[in-house]
Please model this.
Amino acid sequence: MKFLFDFMDKNIAPLFEKGGKFERLYPLFEAGDTFTRTPADVTPSAPHVRDSIDQKRLMVFVVYALLPCLFFGIWNAGHLFNINNNVEGATFLTAMLRGAAMVLPIVMVSYIVGGVWEVLFAIVRRHEINEGFLVTGMLFPLVLPPTLPLWQVAVGISFGIIIGKEIFGGVGFNILNPALTGRAFLFFAYPAQISGDKIWIGSAKTALDNSFLGKVMENVDGVTAATPLAVAAAAEKGTDAIAALGDAGFTLWNMTAGTISGCIGSTSAIAIVLGMVFLLITGIASWRVMLSGLIGVVAIGGLFNILPAEQFSAFSQLPFYYHLVMGGFLFGIVFMATDPVSCAATNTGKWIYGFLIGGLTVLIRVANPAYPEGAMLAILFMNVMAPLIDHFVVQAHIKKRTAYARALNNA
Model:
């Protein structure tokens, strides 16, 4: 292996470096080089911080944490297909195969189309291809329903990369989470397809026999089945929202396990918690944001529980733990809100930022029946507010330190 790397350093690398024949394509060479081995770059002067984690490995760790959600989403899509087509003799393997036929094309389109935009901007701006797209390319498909047309996946990831990130200057400069920005665009542009209220149904033969990964996207029809959030939001004042969920076939257990229709990666609280544990053990994501987000849901959800029920919708009387397992809040607070670029940077700011995301999620769900899923808007709104939160936290710290210094001088 050393011989191969030496050959590349002496004969291939100069062609892509400054003055080389393929200088314009250096971002492509650099991406492949850093992906296969540890970068040799070091800081030219002190201070030096030695750590085994660089940005590439940090992003790869997040992808690892997303794998339980991906695998469960694949199985769940196939599982629902088998149930709604009354497939006899369905097994775990057949569910995985059918689910893969639905989910993997979405993941592939996200990575291919988004990757093209990443490379294009890197070549035009003559900077390195950032590894952050490894996460964005995986996050985006997981917040989409498996019924979404592939052309909408391409449009959504394009919007998220260009408008959500590159227009601000690329990684490190964006104020919005790119994956969530792309989903928000699809939600408002194509609400019928992005709602996640369709279960795969069609000819069982179509899904596996006619061009395994191709025809399935063309010949499968959808049947509408309301999501738990839609059922709770539609419950009339004075009625029991939990009973309404039960009548629609939704229980606390199947919402926690995730065996319901919805977005690919956000239905299973168990899979999300597995990813969360990995992120916390490796120290990749902020536990402050996650914990404060949960506190926000508990606080505002509990507040609505004690307010007069007749003044608000039946949704307001749901216990806080229903808010955690319904919709995309748990997925959002673990994987989206903790994005280090669009999240608050100060420790105090992270507590405020996460709490407001949790509180706003419940508030939007209860007060806006037209949009029962509040997590997406809550996170995007707080992405915008994060710099302001950090500003006030820093100013308060400066004021405190200044007052302390003056007290010492006067002593």
Observations:
- Residues 280 and 287 are 7 Å apart (CA to CA).
- The chain has two domains: 55-224, 260-396.
